[in-house]
Amino acid sequence: MRWPAALIAVAVVAMASPAPLMAQAYQCRMPEKLSPLPAPKRSRSDVRRVLPVAGYTLALSWSPEYCRGRESQASEVLQCSRDHGEFGFVLHGLWPEGKTSTYPQYCASRPSPVPLSVVRQSLCVMPSQRLIQHQWDKHGSCMARDPAQYFQTATRLYRAIRLPDLERMSRRELTFGMVRREIARANPGMTPQAIAIRSNGRGWLQEVRICLGLDYRPRACPAHVRQPRGDTPLRIWRGL
Predict the structure, then answer these.
(1) What value does the mean pLDDT take over residues 39-47?
(2) Rounded to an integer, what distance in angstroms lies between the CA atom of residue 159 and that of residue 61?
(3) How many CB atoms lie within 10 A of CB 77?
(4) Which of 50, 57, 87, 171 is at a distance of 20 to 30 A from 137, taking alpha carbons?
(5) DSSP characters for 126-159?
(6) Which neighbouring-strand residues pair with 89?
(7) What is 5-31+44-234's CATH superfamily?
C-alpha cells in the first residue's frame, strides 16, 4: 500500500499544534558506524497474515520505564545506557489494524533486512536496530513497499504528536483518565477516546497508543481495545 504524500501532510498538520513537548528524544548521540544485523529469521509463531487494513495504531513507549533494570544490558545499550542519549517517549511502531482484533502481520513472503541508511535515520526515534528490523518485518511490510517509506511516515506521525510534561505530572497522583485527557488537550482534534494507555502489573506507565483512521487522523479506538477504567491510578517513572 502506498501513502499519498499529501494525505500524510494533512494528517501531520492536523495533529500538530503549539504545546508543551514533542514526542521526541531529550538528547540523541547515536554512533556514526553501525554493524549490519544478521538476516532476520521468523519462528513458527510468526504467522503470515494478509488482511484488509481498517486503521492504524501509533505506539509510543515511555523509555524511562522500559529501561528500568536494563541500563547495563548489551542488547539495550543504544536506548538505556545513556551513552547515546536520554529518551522520553520513543517510537515503538506504526501498526496496521484489521476490522477485528485480528490484524495483518508479516505480509512479505520472506523477511528482508532494513538498509543501514534507513536504520541510521531512524535510531533517534526508535533506538534499537533489532526493534527497527522487527517493526518492518511484522508491520511495515503490510503497509509500504519498502522500509524507507514505512519509517519516514512513522517518524512524521511520531513527531507530530504533542505531549504534556509527564515528568511534572508524575509528581502528583494520576489516573488513566487524567493522562488521556491531558494528551488529548495538547492535540486539537484528538479526543481521550483515541488514546489507549498501557501499564505494567505494578501500575507504571509503559506506553501510549494513538488510534488512527485510514486518513491517519486520530479516531476513537475500536471496541476490542481494552484498558482500565479512567479512575484507575497510574504512576510514571522518571528514571531517577
Answers:
(1) 90
(2) 14
(3) 17
(4) 87
(5) S--HHHHHHHHHHTGGGT-SSHHHHHHHHHHHHH
(6) 62
(7) Ribonuclease T2-like (3.90.730.10)
What is the C-alpha separation between 57 and 13, in angstroms, rounded?
A: 18
What letter represents residue 227's amino acid?
Answer: Q
Q: What percent of the chain is modeled with pLDDT above 70?
A: 89
Separation of alpha carbons 47 and 18, rounded Å: 42
Mean pLDDT, rounded, of the chain: 90
Q: What is the DSSP string of the chain?
A: -PPPHHHHHHHHHHH--S-SEESS-SEE---S--PPPPPP---TT---B-----EEEEEEEEHHHHHTTTTT-GGGHHHHSSSSEE-SEEEEEEEEE-SSS---B--SSS--PPPHHHHHHHTTTS--HHHHHHHHHHTGGGT-SSHHHHHHHHHHHHHH-EE--HHHHTTS-EEHHHHHHHHHHTSTT--GGGEEEEE-TTSBEEEEEEEE-TTSSB-PPPTT-----TTSEEB-----
What pLDDT shows up at residue 238? 87
pTM exceeds 0.85, yes or no: yes
pLDDT (mean) for 192-215: 97
Exposed e or buried b per residue across 46-76, where buried means at least 16 C-beta atoms within 10 angstroms of its C-beta: eeeeebebebbbbbbbbbbbbbeeeeeeeeb
Whether the per-residue pLDDT at 11 is higher than 90: the answer is no
Residue 119 grid coordinates: 536504520
Task: For residues 87-116, give the mean pLDDT.
Answer: 95
